[in-house]
Amino acid sequence: MNYRPINHYLLLADLFVYPIEELRFKTENAQKFLDGHYPTAAKYLAEFTSIINSIPLRQWEEIYTRSFDVQALTTLDAGYVLFGDDYKRGELLVNLNNEHKKTNNDCGTELADHLPNLLRLLVRVNDDDFKNDLIFLIIIPALKKIIGEFENEKIHKKNDIYEKHHKTLITQEENNGKAYKWPLLALLEVLTSDFQENHSGMIDGTTFSHEISNELKIQS
User: Fold this and answer.
1) CB-side neighbour CA atoms (13 Å) of 139
2) Which of 34, 92, 138, 158 has the lowest tally of Cβ within 10 angstroms?
3) Residue boundaries of the structural domains of the chain
4) CB within 8 Å of 53: residues ≥ 6 apart
5) What is the DSSP letter of 19?
6) CA-CA distance, 41 to 26, in Å (whole number)?
7) CA 133 – CA 199 distance, rounded (Å)
8) Rounded to two decimals, what is the model's pTM?
9) Cα-Cα end-to-end distance for the chain
10) At 163, is the secondary structure helix, strand, or coil?
11) Which residues have a Cβ under 8 Å from the Cβ of 145 and sit 6 or more positions away?
């Protein structure tokens, strides 16, 4: 497998951390990089960049929280997205923790399957077979499911449940409520562009590849 340099995933990982003012600058850097190298992904991210540049930090924090944290639309923990609370997620976390330790990839306060941690691991790991598994068996399938949660119908259902149980609703413009759909789509586009040629023959028969692949087929 011939992997091109992929340090740009460090830039993309920053798009999915909790918002702070410094993140505006990092988002602009990611936008400039995509503008120069991935025009389709750049168009997606531009939607997100436009939104966050037009709102105060507090509103950005609320959008992030509603998207990924408290009573969230979805989550950025890829293993949970794929397996829920099933024991298979536990096995995945053990495997990922080992890989994070091997590469000295600090996960901070988040779990090993948190999307930014996976993207940073992707840059650090040298094992091409594992990298291929990480991309095609974990990151891309999880991304597609996460993006699917930003469909209007699903957002409205989540809001109805939230309002029913908490007697309140965080009011936000519909476009802002789907803000994180755009960097997710940008990331999926970049991954597809970078690695699609490695997709064939990705399952090599190893336990990690084989079991994760089987679980995804069962759940789909």
Assistant:
1) 28
2) 158
3) 8-219
4) 24
5) P
6) 16
7) 10
8) 0.83
9) 28
10) helix
11) 74, 81, 82
Joined together, the tokens standing for residue 197 give: 């040629």
Question: Which residues neighbour 194 within 8 Å (Cβ) at sequence distance 6 or greater?
Answer: 3, 4, 6
Give 98-151 pLDDT, tens digit per residue: 999 999 999 999 999 999 999 999 999 999 999 999 999 999 999 999 999 998
Q: Answer yes or no: are the C-beta atoms of 180 and 64 closer than 8 Å.
A: yes
In three-state secondary structure terms, 77 is strand
CA distances from 45 to 92, 101, 113, 135, 201 (A): 30, 31, 23, 20, 31
DSSP element (H, E) containing 27: helix 22-37
Lookup: tokens for 96: 């990922």
Helices (H) and strands (E) in the chain, counts: 13, 0
